[in-house]
């Protein structure tokens, strides 16, 4: 999860998020180089003792500063499009979970084998135990098996919401009357936090998402326990 | 003179503008080609209401509908839903 004064992305917990991180590094490096060049040119122009500072015509430099930005844009576009298409691929998920947005909580349904469904409300600040995260913890977490492709079908029961977990590189709008599909693979076991990402009323900031990735045997134990409690 | 002839004449005295035409022309061509591909190949689009009224009902798991696949091998997939 995010830590105070964090500037960059959270550590990647899925292969897609790793790709996004690396692409961001690539694009940011290009942006830093261009910004440094521009800043240098500005300072050089402003601090020079030369009096004839303005070139009136030069075909060679015009070619250079047309072709070079074009090439740079292509260098950015090709990895970007590759990741765009990669993110749309759904590679034979082992499990399908429905995440339904309500005002103001999420509900998860695991209906592949048995009928398992539960609501996930935020834990109010006054009820937190020491060590728990304010405005991020929920009473029931969405537990998934680690290293297994999981498909999430996202929808909403009342107004627009959005199901997002930054560490997994996942965000999908929850639209009433529409079923949106996304998928992820949790590369390692862990707890991953997200928050509702589409304004949905008074408690939009208070309906977080917690995904807990556990090894498969633990997932099976958890789902049996949840079915007994229901 | 036609517009193309005028531009060609002007380009001779300003050859540095040729890369501009290449990149802008290339970008415009690529986007128009993608739009054409979407119009013709996208299963959501219906051109012939009499002979092919609902192309989205004829999708097979082994067809590739996206422009580019990174990791998926569509020829290996099997149909998972029921026939209707």
UniProtKB/TrEMBL annotation, chain A:
Keywords for the protein's UniProt record, in alphabetical order: Copper, Electron transport, Magnesium, Membrane, Metal-binding, Mitochondrion, Mitochondrion inner membrane, Respiratory chain, Translocase, Transmembrane, Transmembrane helix, Transport
Location(s) in or outside the cell: Mitochondrion inner membrane
Cofactor descriptive note: Binds a copper A center.
GO MF terms, alphabetically ordered: copper ion binding; cytochrome-c oxidase activity; oxidoreductase activity
Pfam families listed in its UniProt record: COX2 (PF00116), COX2_TM (PF02790)
GO biological process, one term: ATP synthesis coupled electron transport
Domain Cytochrome oxidase subunit II transmembrane region profile: 1-91
Domain Cytochrome oxidase subunit II copper A binding: residue ranges: 92-225
Cofactor(s) in the UniProt record: Cu cation
Catalytic reaction list: 4 Fe(II)-[cytochrome c] + O2 + 8 H(+)(in) = 4 Fe(III)-[cytochrome c] + 2 H2O + 4 H(+)(out)
Sequence similarity: Belongs to the cytochrome c oxidase subunit 2 family.
Protein name (Swiss-Prot/TrEMBL): Cytochrome c oxidase subunit 2
Species this chain originates from: Xyrichtys novacula
Gene that encodes it: COX2
Automatic annotation (TrEMBL), chain B:
Protein location: Mitochondrion inner membrane
Main location: mitochondrion
CC per GO annotation: mitochondrial inner membrane
UniProt keyword Transport present: yes
The entry's keywords: Electron transport, Membrane, Mitochondrion, Mitochondrion inner membrane, Respiratory chain, Transmembrane, Transmembrane helix, Transport
Ranges annotated as spanning the membrane: 20-40
InterPro entries to which the protein is assigned, alphabetical: B12D
Membrane association type: Single-pass membrane protein
Superkingdom in the source lineage: Eukaryota
UniProt family annotation: Belongs to the complex IV NDUFA4 subunit family.
Protein name: Cytochrome c oxidase subunit NDUFA4
